[in-house]
Write a structure and sequence with these properties.
6-stranded parallel beta sheet; single chain; elongated; Isoleucyl-tRNA Synthetase, Domain 1; 2 domains
Length: 481
C-alpha cells in the first residue's frame, strides 16, 4: 500500500494571558477547515496548536493574581485547549512552551544558531511594547505609541542581552522570496515583508536578564539570561514533531530543504515574526524553510478593534453555548474574509444564522428528507458526487469563503429544483418518476453533506446519517427570534 501524503498545518500559539476571543477562534477554525479538507482527500494530517507561556506579560499577570507562573499558565492553557471541544476541532497536538521537551528543543535550536555564528551579546537601549513583546523603532510608532497597543506605555530597556544576526540574512531572505513566490499568502502581505527586508533588517534581541524576568527558557551556557519569548515560541512548530530526536517524523511532516511541507497560519500582526525572523532562524539552524504562510486579517466589532474598555469583545464559548459550534464555524468561514479585516457583530451573526442555516440549509434538509422518508424504500444508498474543481481550487488557495459560496450555491439550486420540479406533486401522479427525482435530490444533498465536512463537521454527519437511514433528522438549526 502506498504511503499517504503528509500534510502539516499549525496556527500561531497564543499568549495565555487572557481567555480566548473570537479573533483567535477565526484562526483555529480556518486551520481546522484546511486540516479536515486534506484528511478528506486521504492525506495523513498533523495539525498543531498550543500555548505560548513565557514572557514578561505572563510573568506580570501571574504576579498580579498572586500565583506562581506555572500555576497561572496551567489554568489559562486549559482554557485554550477547551476550544477543541467547544469548536469541534481536530488538532492532534497541543504544544505548550513550558513542556520539558519543547524547552530542550528550544535550547538545541539556540545552540545550532550559536554554532552558525549568528548569536552574540551586546549592551543596548530600545523602546519595547509589552503587548507585542517586540522592540519598536520610532518609525513604527504613532504619537509615540505602538499602533496595536496604544493604551500601553512603551518601556525603555537598557541591558546586556544576546542578539540574533537578522541583518546577515537580508540577501538569503530576499533570495528565498524570489525562489518561493508563494511563500506568503496573500500577495499584498508578501509585499509588506519584502519591503521590510529590502529596507535592511536589524538584529533582534533574543534574551532577557534572568534577574529582571526569570520566567523563560534558560539560555544554554549562561544562567544569567533566559530566552526572549519569540525565539522560544517559534520553535514550537518543529518541537511538536519530536524534533530534534525524531528526524523521521520531522522530515515526514515539516519536509526537507528540497521539499518543504510546513503550512503556517498567522494574523497580520505577525508577518515579521513568521516570514522574516523565523525563516532566518531556520536558515541559521540549517533546517528546511516553511512551505507557506497564510496571513489573515483582524476581526473588528462594530467597526472598532475589540477591547475590554470598549466592551465589544466577543466570547466564542458564549456563542457556541447558544447556537452550537457549527453555527459559529459557518459564520467565520463564509462571512469573515480570509485575508482582510472583517466586522463581527451579534446582529450580523444572528441574521446570517436565521437566513443561511435555519431557513436555508436546515430547511432544505428537512424538505428533502421528509420526501425521502415518505417515498423511498429503507436501505436506499445514494453515492455522493465528487468535489467540484471550483470548490477544491478555493480551498487550495485558502479562499475559505469562496468554497463556502460554492456550497451555498448548491443549496440554493436544490431549493430552486424543488420549487420548479415539485417532486412532492410528481410522486403522487407518477410514482416511479417521483421516486427518481427524490433519489436524485438525496444524492445531491449527500454531496453537499460531504462538502460541508471541513466546515460544519457535526452537521455534515447528521445529514449523511439521515440519508443513510432514510429518515428526516431533528431540526438542524432552530430559528432564533
Amino acid at each position: 500500500m502506498a504511503e499517504k501524503k503528509a500534510f502539516y498545518i499549525t496556527t500561531t500559539i497564543p499568549y495565555v494571558n487572557a481567555p480566548p476571543h473570537i479573533g483567535f477562534a477565526l484562526e483555529i477554525v480556518q486551520a481546522d477547515i484546511l486540516a479536515r479538507y486534506h484528511a478528506l482527500l486521504g492525506e495523513e494530517v498533523f495539525f498543531n496548536f498550543g500555548s505560548d507561556e513565557h514572557g514578561i506579560k505572563i510573568y506580570r499577570k501571574a504576579l498580579e493574581e498572586d500565583k506562581e507562573p506555572q500555576a497561572y499558565v496551567d489554568e489559562y492553557a486549559a482554557k485554550f485547549d477547551a476550544l477543541k471541544d467547544a469548536l469541534n476541532l481536530s488538532y492532534n497536538a497541543f504544544t505548550r512552551t513550558t513542556d520539558p521537551h519543547h524547552k530542550a528543543a528550544a535550547q538545541e535550536f539556540w545552540k545550532r544558531c550559536h554554532v552558525a555564528g549568528d548569536i552574540y551579546k551586546k549592551n543596548y537601549q530600545i523602546k519595547y511594547c509589552v503587548g507585542c513583546e517586540l522592540e519598536k523603532t520610532d518609525s513604527e510608532l504613532v504619537d509615540g505609541k505602538c499602533p496595536l497597543h496604544p493604551n500601553l506605555e512603551l518601556e525603555l530597556i537598557d541591558e546586556e542581552n544576546y542578539f540574533f544576526k537578522l541583518s546577515k540574512y537580508k540577501q538569503p531572505l530576499l533570495d528565498l522570496y524570489t525562489t518561493h513566490p508563494e511563500l506568503v499568502v496573500p500577495d499584498f502581505r508578501f509585499n509588506e515583508i519584502k519591503k521590510f527586508i529590502e529596507s535592511g533588517p536589524e538584529d533582534f534581541s533574543i534574551s532577557r536578564l534572568k534577574e529582571k524576568m526569570p520566567w523563560g527558557v534558560p539560555v544554554p551556557g549562561d544562567d544569567t539570561q533566559v530566552m526572549y519569548v519569540w525565539f522560544d515560541a517559534l520553535v514550537n512548530y518543529i518541537s511538536t514533531l519530536g524534533w530534534p530526536e525524531d528526524e523521521k517524523n520531522f522530515e515526514k511532516f515539516w519536509g526537507t530543504k528540497d521539499k518543504p511541507n510546513g503550512l503556517q497560519l498567522a494574523g497580520k500582526d505577525q508577518i515579521r515574526q513568521q516570514a522574516a525572523m523565523w525563516q532566518a532562524m531556520l536558515m541559521s539552524a540549517q533546517l528546511p524553510q516553511t512551505k507557506q504562510i497564510v496571513i489573515h486579517g483582524f476581526i473588528t466589532s462594530g467597526g472598532h478593534k475589540m477591547s475590554k474598555s470598549l466592551g465589544n469583545v466577543i466570547d466564542p464559548f458564549a456563542i457556541v453555548e447558544e447556537y452550537g459550534a457549527d453555527a459559529l464555524r459557518y459564520f467565520l468561514a463564509r462571512h469573515i474574509h480570509p485575508f482582510e479585516d472583517s466586522d463581527f457583530t451579534m446582529e450580523r451573526f444572528k441574521e446570517a444564522y436565521n437566513a443561511d442555516l435555519a431557513n436555508g440549509l436546515g430547511n432544505l434538509v428537512a424538505r428533502i428528507m421528509k420526501l425521502a422518508e415518505d417515498n423511498l424504500p429503507v436501505g436506499t444508498r445514494p453515492e455522493p458526487k465528487g468535489f467540484s474543481e471550483e470548490y477544491m481550487q478555493a480551498l487550495e488557495n485558502f479562499e475559505i469563503n469562496k468554497a463556502m459560496n460554492v456550497i451555498s450555491a448548491k443549496i440554493q439550486k436544490l431549493d430552486q429544483v424543488i420549487t420548479e420540479v415539485a417532486p412532492f406533486k410528481v410522486v403522487k401522479t407518477d410514482t416511479e418518476k417521483g421516486k427518481i427525482l427524490i433519489f436524485d435530490l438525496t444524492q445531491d444533498l449527500y454531496t453537499i453533506g460531504r462538502m460541508l465536512n471541513p466546515f460544519l463537521p457535526e452537521t455534515s454527519e447528521k445529514i449523511k446519517k439521515a440519508i443513510v437511514n432514510n429518515k428526516k433528522p431533528e431540526t438542524l438549526f432552530p430559528r432564533k427570534e
